[in-house]
């Protein structure tokens, strides 16, 4: 289980660092051109869709961890395979669920 957490941490920290560096460069370029960095943040952006997406994703990941644990305990499937497969399966299903809800909401 420690290996799983370590791998997820490494693959989470690297994209976060890249995002932060890119955002910093973008804002710096705007300031150098004399524009306001507030152009990047929309004041009227609706955050409910974003919150819903992350909420559904986290619920899916939690269900994936639980099902992975059940598979690990009660089947002969290895620990890594059971956890990773269920986390990705339920995370993907959660994002598909969000997509269908957002599409229905948009119509």
Automatic annotation (TrEMBL):
<keyword id="KW-0812">Transmembrane</keyword>
<feature type="transmembrane region" description="Helical">
    <location>
        <begin position="83"/>
        <end position="102"/>
    </location>
</feature>
<protein>
    <recommendedName>
        <fullName>DUF6249 domain-containing protein</fullName>
    </recommendedName>
</protein>
<dbReference type="InterPro" id="IPR046216">
    <property type="entry name" value="DUF6249"/>
</dbReference>
<feature type="domain" description="DUF6249">
    <location>
        <begin position="5"/>
        <end position="102"/>
    </location>
</feature>
<dbReference type="Pfam" id="PF19762">
    <property type="entry name" value="DUF6249"/>
</dbReference>
<feature type="transmembrane region" description="Helical">
    <location>
        <begin position="54"/>
        <end position="71"/>
    </location>
</feature>
<keyword id="KW-0472">Membrane</keyword>
<keyword id="KW-1133">Transmembrane helix</keyword>
<feature type="transmembrane region" description="Helical">
    <location>
        <begin position="6"/>
        <end position="22"/>
    </location>
</feature>
């Amino acid at each position: 289980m420690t290996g799983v957490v370590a791998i997820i941490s490494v693959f989470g920290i690297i994209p976060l660092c890249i995002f932060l560096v890119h955002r910093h460069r973008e804002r710096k370029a705007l300031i150098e051109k004399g524009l306001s960095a507030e152009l990047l943040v929309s004041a009227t952006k609706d955050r409910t869709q974003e919150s819903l997406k992350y909420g559904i994703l986290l619920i899916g990941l939690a269900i994936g961890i639980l099902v992975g644990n059940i598979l690990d305990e009660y089947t002969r499937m290895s620990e890594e395979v059971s956890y990773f497969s269920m986390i990705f399966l339920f995370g993907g299903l959660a994002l598909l669920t969000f997509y269908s809800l957002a599409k229905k909401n948009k119509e």
